[in-house]
Design goal:
This protein is α/β, with parallel strands linked by helices and 150 residues long. The protein has a domain of 104 residues: Ribosomal Protein L13p, Chain: A, CATH 3.90.1180.10. The chain is built from six helices and six strands. The strands form two sheets. A four-stranded parallel beta sheet has the order 5-2-1-6. Strands 3-4 form a two-stranded antiparallel sheet. A hairpin with a 6-residue loop joins strand 3 and strand 4. It is globular, with a radius of gyration of 17 Å.
């Protein structure tokens, strides 16, 4: 008789992973981050269980976009949010968003790859994004992403 493995909360071990986004493609780095947040890199991965690790992203302001028109994509890709007041739709281009709030660009890309429910919101809280090369999580000894996900 085969039994399904279901990890208990005490069995889940969470590590800290460091991701350097310098020169990385936005979509490709976001998929790798989402995979680590979900815990798909672990052999004990179970759908519906928060198995993932903490992810620290540095140099978010240096992320790139590619494509046939990557220079025009910086101006044509728009991020929208609404203030819930009539006429309250605000839009900002990718170029301006990277200049003003580079962490929001990567956070929006990763959120689009996570489940849109309570678990996805909990996973997104384990994502720490910083615009520059410095971060306050050195005491947690984060490992580089290349050693965690092969």
């Amino acid at each position: 008789m085969y039994k399904s493995y279901y990890p208990k909360a005490s069995e889940i071990e969470r590590k800290w992973v460091l991701v350097d986004a310098n020169g990385e493609n936005l979509g490709r780095i976001a998929t790798r981050i989402a995979s680590v947040l979900l815990g798909k890199h672990k052999p004990t991965f179970t759908p519906g269980v928060e198995m993932g690790d903490y992810v620290v992203v540095v140099n978010a302001e240096r992320v790139t976009v590619t494509g046939t028109r990557s220079s025009t994509k910086m101006d044509t890709k728009m991020y929208h949010h609404h203030s819930n007041y009539p006429g309250g739709l605000k839009s900002i281009s990718l170029r301006d968003q990277l200049r003003q709030h580079p962490d929001r660009v990567l956070r929006a890309a990763v959120w689009g790859m996570l489940p849109h429910n309570r678990m996805g919101r909990a996973l997104l809280k384990r994502l720490k994004i910083y615009a520059g090369p410095n971060h306050p999580h050195t005491t947690n000894n984060p490992e580089p992403l290349a050693t965690v996900v092969k």
